[in-house]
Amino acid sequence: MVNQVVEAMRGGDVLVAGAGVAGAGVARMLGDLECTVTIADDNVVAGGTLGTETGAYAVTVAEALTRLGDGRFDLVITSPGWRPDGPLPATAAEAGVAVVGDVEAAWLADRAALFGAPRTWLAVTGTNGKTTTTAMLDAILQADGRRSRAVGNIGTPPGEALLAEPRIEVLAAEVSSFQLHWAPEFAPDAGCVLNLAEDHLDWHGSFGNYVADKMRALTGAVAVIAADDPNVTSGAHVVSGERRAFTTGDPVAVVLSDGPVAVVTGVRDGRIVELDPATGQLTDLASAEGISPPGPAGVADAAAAAALARSVGVSAEAVSSALAGFRVQAHRGQVVAETDGVRWVDNSKATNPHAASAALRGLDHVVWVAGG
User: Fold this and answer.
1) Residues 300, 225: contact at Cβ < 8 Å?
2) Over the stretch 289-298, which tens digit does the pLDDT of each residue have?
3) Which of 53, 78, 146, 363 is the most exposed place for a label (fewest CB within 10 A)?
4) pTM for this predicted structure
5) How open is the CA angle 144-320-190, to the nearest 5 degrees?
6) Domain 119-325: what homologous superfamily?
């Protein structure tokens, strides 16, 4: 399938399912590759606007289905929200047309050197904490002087990032379970699964399917494993590359049952540190106090970001300076006011029990205003 996808992106006839942010990034990438692009979206305003911007054709989903049945397209690139049993993916499969997602398309185009020498991809996924960890990772990379960009569910669509000038060398990619489902060949240079809890089961069909899609982030050269989460460690048998781990506890306590760990990033005496279990060498990385957002969830995100960055040779000094200056984005544990000794925290992005529990564990004497 890889050859089929890559050849279709060398000037072929490609259907882009969805005119949102992901679809727009794909359409711009394909336009640069001189593909004939058709955008399918029942939001005719969004489809038409994107078509005008990119030179693509805009059609409704019904029109796209007819053209798929007629054998018009060489490839379908879907936005993340399209379910596998949806009409477009199902019709494409019946017609023998490959269906991939926006991350997979950009990944394969980059690996095929369609935009110059391949870049370094660092992937972050999990049920919660993806955006904060990815933003931390990007800050650390930039502090080290790397030409990086946060892409995927945060920042720039990955296909659009391949077009950027000056050239981006490192992509810090926040990837959802939906994007990973549509990315069967995706194998980042380093990837991390932060945590796993039941989520999006209506889309994936079961927790097992959800976990299997998430675990695709660990199939590259380096896998960073959440040692504190049994759902992650039990699924880590998919790892074939170097195994690293992170924890909010002392790194020396980490032992994974299904194989050795090259490096463990953890916390000792209020510091985020890195341990080489083989030699016992301990490298100080950053303070674990004052991390934004506060509490165990923020420290876990920081340790994961540090572990990913260190896997590609980022300096300890860059980790320290970036985390010291990092402030969480809006709605993700952001302190919005302090009055009369009361701190007001906006954590409205905690839209499932796992996220809310993690946020509350990081605070003392809490009055929780739930709902809106």
Assistant:
1) no
2) 999 888 899 9
3) 53
4) 0.89
5) 55
6) Mur-like, catalytic domain (3.40.1190.10)
